[in-house]
# Entry
Amino acid sequence: MRTYQDLREFLAVLDQQGQLLRITDEVSLEPDLGAAACALTQLGEASPAIQFSNIAGYQNARVVMNVHGSWPNHALALGMDRDAPPRDQFHRFVHGYTQYPGEFRRVKEAPWQEIVVDHDVSLYDLMPLFRLNRGDGGHFLDKACAVSRDPDDPDNDDAENVGIYRLQVKGPNRLGILAVPQHDIAIHLAHAERRGEDLPVAIALGTDPIVTLMGATPMLYDQLEYRMAGALQGEPYQVACTEKGLDVPWGSEYVLEGRMLAGQRELEGPFGEFPGYYSGCHRYPVIEIDRVSHRKDPIYDAVYVGRPWTEIDYLQAMTTSAPIYAQLSADFPEVSAVNALYTHGLVVVVSTKTRYGGFAKAVGLRVLATTHGLGYAKVVIVVDDNVDPFDLKQVMWAISVKVNPDHDVVILPNLSVNPLDPAGQPTGIANKMIIDATTPMAPDVRGDYGQELDTPQHTDEWRTRLASLIKDRR
Amino acid sequence: MSDRDPDVTAPMCPRCRSTTIDIRATSPIAGAWILFACSTCLYVWRSTEPEENRDPDRYPEAFRLLPQQLADLPILPAIQSPAAKADSG
# Structure
């Protein structure tokens, strides 16, 4: 596939494809940056990335947002044609995901090493930090990859972790980090605290588009995101090492090196989160930054998070769907696709062939028992194999005509759900529902499904021909 | 616009109304903005932000905090105690 060595190369391709909007008029840090990025998400499914290059109070700062924030941008990140439909992007992502492990390659020199600040670090001087939503408690780095190793197993590359965690800037060199016990970095911190040590971390901001998707993919503890990036792009993924032995993406704009402080928890939040609600405040771990390296005239990359859909929903789209699909199809090869795009998979749509009556409900139940389904999958909709689960018009058709609520809705009480789901009662517990929108099959003989419409002869050939003609008109 | 006039006084934190305020940063190009910070609740605000983010009386009710609430906020993840070393003592 087409790969990008850094964010700059990807921005150049977005620009060439008409998917980068440059704002050269002066903008304020607040509310302009958040407002513009939010507005972009309201302008359809093909909205471009946006770059601001004239930011009040800064000489040369550049901010990019919405880099992954549309299907064309997401397709280009995966090295596909910008017009690739979501279902094709899903299969492309799954293909890479199932090739794990790929390779990664360490090199000594990287562009981010060009400028080093290792005394009197002030992130306020180095980055155009800003508030995204009015209720946010401050400024957050919300699209950075945090890298750590297991202090009990420091030479094991597979236990190295790369994850996107929200980071609140609380002082010139002080960050808060949202790390809950389920996160791999929290396991590393727990091991460090038991040893009575701080946990070394490196934070990479402004990276190539693939590693950002990897940082957002729920993986097993002993799966390394760089090997997954290598699997996805079909060639070794390139990293450079910090002095503390942490691998960071070669193409990063900024690399922050520091320590998660053992035994410290401090007020963090709130932050407007992906379910479309603020997170509230908690006491979370703290990171002290000792050193910042960056490219010349670094680009600051941020994701707008708001009421769905926003850019974060694209970051959590195929990265959520692929792991569910991999687990589901291992048991049920009849499953053809999984759409877990909605609020990180609180709603999941699965398309499958059915073997016999009741089969689709069993597939739905299996979704609840996937690793991700334990905390999400509150509503599971199962559709036939000939319904594209990424095309909601088709899904709604299936629900319209295939569902008889008396037989096709299963509700299971008191299951686990992510605490960020505001519907939890109590928080973290919800009933879950399976909607079987597949065609009833013997021995479950119900309804009258004798003569379903198909398409006229040669429709597929016409679709290919017309799509090409439409594309040529652009 | 009146709500964009720089406010350089900032006597009180808009969120928790503490007076533990300091100037956290100023704009690299002098005079564009001042960033204030509250050392009690760690809230920060810029002199050029909309009034609801910098004026305690206009700060949205839903986001206000009382200093005495801070000690009751949940701790995540639980802090691990250093393990006693087998060979100690």
In short: The CA atoms of residues 36 and 45 of chain B lie 5 Å apart. Chain B touches chain A through 38 residues (CB under 8 Å). Chain B has one helix and three strands. The helical segments of chain B are 51-54.
